[in-house]
Amino acid sequence: MTARNSIRLVDVARAAGVHPSTVSRVLHDSDRAAVRPETRERILAVARDLRYRPNVLARGLKTAATATFGMLVPSLRNPVYAEIVRGAVNEAARRGYVMVLAEDDSAVTEQAWDRLVEEGRIDGIIVASAAPGNPILQLVSGSRVPYVFVNRRVPGSGRNVYMREGDAGRLAAEHLIGLGHIALAQVAGPLGLDTASRRAAGFADAVVSAGLQLPALVEAPFEERGAFEAMGRLVQSRARPTGVYVSNLNQAIGALACVRRSGLRVPGDLSLITYDDDPLAEFLEVPLTAIRMPLGELGAASISALADQIDGQPARDVEVTTAPELVLRSSTSPPERLIPATPSPSSNGGEQQSGIGVDQQ
Amino acid sequence: MTARNSIRLVDVARAAGVHPSTVSRVLHDSDRAAVRPETRERILAVARDLRYRPNVLARGLKTAATATFGMLVPSLRNPVYAEIVRGAVNEAARRGYVMVLAEDDSAVTEQAWDRLVEEGRIDGIIVASAAPGNPILQLVSGSRVPYVFVNRRVPGSGRNVYMREGDAGRLAAEHLIGLGHIALAQVAGPLGLDTASRRAAGFADAVVSAGLQLPALVEAPFEERGAFEAMGRLVQSRARPTGVYVSNLNQAIGALACVRRSGLRVPGDLSLITYDDDPLAEFLEVPLTAIRMPLGELGAASISALADQIDGQPARDVEVTTAPELVLRSSTSPPERLIPATPSPSSNGGEQQSGIGVDQQ
DNA sequence: CTGAAAGCGCTTACAG
DNA sequence: CTGAAAGCGCTTACAG
Predict the structure, then answer these.
(1) By CB atoms within 10 Å of each CB, which of A103, A139, A332, B263 scores lowest?
(2) Distance CA B155, CA B6 (A)
(3) DSSP secondary-structure letter at B358?
(4) B350 and A349: CB-CB below 8 Å?
């Protein structure tokens, strides 16, 4: 079903009155091909007229290159990965590559691997699904395909492409501290995940550096419900924080729901800042202050890193240095009270009028 | 960079002491291959031991088939497409196919087309980006690659794979009407889009069938801000509706923000039901009643339809008959007032206590 | 500067 | 039941 009935190299050669090898040469060796200018022009013109497109299968068979990259993502649904994928797909296209995508839910890792790598479909692979125990780690290191880990690093691999997650946490901490908060806490992601732990570490680091106490940390999966429950623990703790950093947007939505439910006001009683931004953050009942990350750039960088390896450069870590960006909205403000207190049992919604019972200093 | 240094067919043949063609035969013609059982077993065993994997490039070159499908989506970010893609990727994997994804933002349609189709990379293509004027429509119909339109239909193409969008609208209308609403309206998507128009038509149809007046309709892009504004028009209209159907989740979040801003309560003053469900809908300040669609199934069905074409069956429309499902949450309730009124100018948030100034009948 | 040949790793009639 | 040959559409030394 492929280009069987479309123009082949020989068609171009025939039409231009030259040997196929000559056509191949002008189509490839760009300038340094020893081909007479007029011949080259003629061939190029014919190829254009005929809308000739080389068959990548045939070329790949000969050159042992497919102009295809594979990418393994933990979840196609997660908008964060969608954005990384998009950056990667577009950069790949710019370089003449095409992307094959597979969801690596670990149950089918080996199958995806066989299909992409063992069947020789790809020139390199981007792994966004690294996690402790994921079989992909073995597969990839026991193979000869070029590869790169994106977003979630694998320590010691020397082929990580990642963002400044720590700086995101630091930025969040500095924002809250700058607002006057001293009782800080965070809802972290699963700390076994490289990204989650760096976000958390950066936040804690900046808080401690500012001379404040090590912030409380509750761990939760990267989704609404888990964060709802984790936030519940924070809100009911004796030393209830006034400023909380949440590790992704889904968590933030769950956390916000929890705060609302417990009758506290955001940001009056509790300031909330989240890692990850999205247009919808602006339209929530209290628009979320967020930290925007260069996700598309990250995806593009992973392609560049892979292409470098294929060009023969040794693999190396690459940090996307674009700084995390604070998107200021309404969920953070100076604390209205510095002395931690337990929440009132009343449940009066999350309205945003002036505060009641404020102990502002 | 491909399987150049991995085991080839000849390696298996050599190890099994047979001719390569024999190996190929047992690996392919499944049962009906005229091969002595013991030979076949021996070959199979060797192939397994050597972990032999056929090189798809070589096979594809010979058979003119790549075991790869292409897919064009309007936006990789949109969770709806993410879910369709996921369904497609998984079904493709089940059938031994791999998926190449490209974002069809129309500016690069031709480029993506060249890369996927003209270069002979794929056996068929799934188009999720159909829209009036999109150049893909010409490309696809002027070509010989098997293809299918998914989600957004192209009338008359005879190769649409789609869901019962109309039934979603009907379900929404019936739910609101069942609750006692008589003043209905809808925030529709861009009506030039097949999906948007079917959602809208189904809703209007059910409303009129119930003997009620044709519901007001405002059109908005499929995102928060546009819906926020469109909803504003509805809320300020003289005949303010008490029940509104919104055409996707992003719109619903924008619409909810608008209602909140105008000082109306959901569902007391205004019931809201949305097309599209997502875990986060449950965690909004008022959990959204939603209509869940079989998106993954839709993606899988598009792969099946394409595979059928490749098997030689004529192209045909296929409807995914799984019924839209009502996910009942808190944003819909019986109307507290049947006589439309203009909103009060006060802005007292969107709390959910008992109503004030109710004209219940 | 250009042509002729070999070969990438498969599959598939065709012999025998 | 199995082998030998040709060929898919390219690229790339090697001649000349």
Answers:
(1) B263
(2) 48
(3) -
(4) yes
Question: Which pTM value belongs to this model?
Answer: 0.87
Using a 10 angstrom Cβ sphere, with 0-12 exposed, 13-18 middle and 19 or more buried, the burial of residue A352 is middle
**CATH number of the domain residue B58 falls in:** 1.10.260.40
Query: Does the CB of A21 fall within 7 Å of any strand C atom?
Result: yes
User: Element (H or E) spanning A217, and its range?
Assistant: strand A216-219
The dihedral sign for the CA sequence A204, A207, A211, A215: negative
Q: Express each pLDDT in B163-217 by its tens digit.
A: 999 999 999 999 999 999 999 999 999 999 999 999 999 999 999 999 999 999 9
Distance, in Å, from the CA atom of A315 to the CA atom of A313, rounded to the nearest integer, reads: 6
Check CB contact under 8 Å for B93 and A86: no
Residues A70 and A153 in one domain: yes
> Is B276 in the same domain as B175?
yes
Q: Which range of residues forms the domain containing residue A133?
A: 66-163+296-320
Count CB neighbours of B78 within 10 A.
Answer: 19
Q: Is the CB of B28 under 7 A from strand D?
A: no
Of A79, A121, A285, the CB nearest to B285: A285
In tens, the pLDDT along A281-301 reads 999 999 999 999 999 999 999
Domains: count for chain A: 3
Residues 104-143 of B with CB under 8 A from A: 108, 111-112, 114-116, 118-124
Q: Best of A12, A51, A75, A76 to disrupt the B interface by mutation (most B CBs within 10 Å)?
A: A76
Residues of B in contact with A56 (CB under 8 A): 119-121
Count Cα neighbours of B154 within 13 Å in the Cβ-side half-sphere.
Answer: 23
A356 touches chain B (CB under 8 A): no
